[in-house]
Amino acid sequence: MVVVAVAVNLRPAIAAVPPVLDTIQADLGLSATGAGFLTALPVVCMGLFAPLGAALARRVGRERAVSFALALVACGALVRGLDASAVPLYGGTLLAGLGIALGGVLLPGVVKAWFPARAGAVTGLYTAGLVGGAMVAAAATVPLMETLGSGWPAAIGAWGLLAVAALVAWVPVTRRLPVA
């Protein structure tokens, strides 16, 4: 189900960093404060930018707003994979955090609109997707880094490809929906 595919992508950008945080700190010379800010930034984004989700949905429609959120997550994660430096790392984290904030606010409305008779069950499925995405990213980032052999940027940036795949699945489904 495409809703679960979107949900799976709302946590890897957060959960992929802690397993490689020591390596990031060592490579970039980050202080404990800099490392703490890096891990807190997506959560701060969720608090600051979540209110924009409803406004964006009113302006462009709920499904397009989810597409935009997923595109931000994908771009943010991919930007983090560009280079082992602070600018793409923090900039990509900010973009991904913004997308996570928007997607987290918008997805419950999608579930209620698309599955009114089964909203509780589908909410359970997308919540499992959130947790599953976080779990897989946390468990697989270090092995991914070792397999790719190109360091932490590629390992944390690779999660953007998962978001791109979800976006590729999401857009055609939403284009088949009747215009409200």
Strand tally? 0
Rg from alpha-carbon coordinates = 16 Å
Q: Give the overall silhouette.
A: globular
**Parts with pLDDT < 50 across at least 5 consecutive residues:** none
Report the sheet-strand fraction: under 5%
Class inferred from helices and paired strands: mainly alpha
Number of helices: 9
- Tell me roughly what share of residues is in helical segments: over 70%
Distance between the termini: 22 Å
Order of helices and strands: HHHHHHHHH
The averaged pLDDT comes out at 95
Largest sheet: none
What would the keywords be for this entry?
about 180 residues, mainly alpha
Write up what this structure looks like.
The chain has 180 residues and is mainly alpha-helical. Helices cover 83% and strands 0% of the residues. The longest helix is centred in the last third of the chain and has 30 residues, at 119-148. It starts with a helix and ends in a 5-residue tail after the last helix. The mean pLDDT is 95.
Secondary structure layout:
Elements: H1 2-8, H2 12-15, H3 21-28, H4 32-60, H5 62-80, H6 86-114, H7 119-148, H8 151-157, H9 159-175
Helix pairs in contact: 1-7, 1-9, 4-5, 4-6, 5-6, 5-8, 5-9, 7-8
Structure, briefly:
This protein has 180 residues and is mainly alpha-helical. The chain contains 9 helices and no strands.
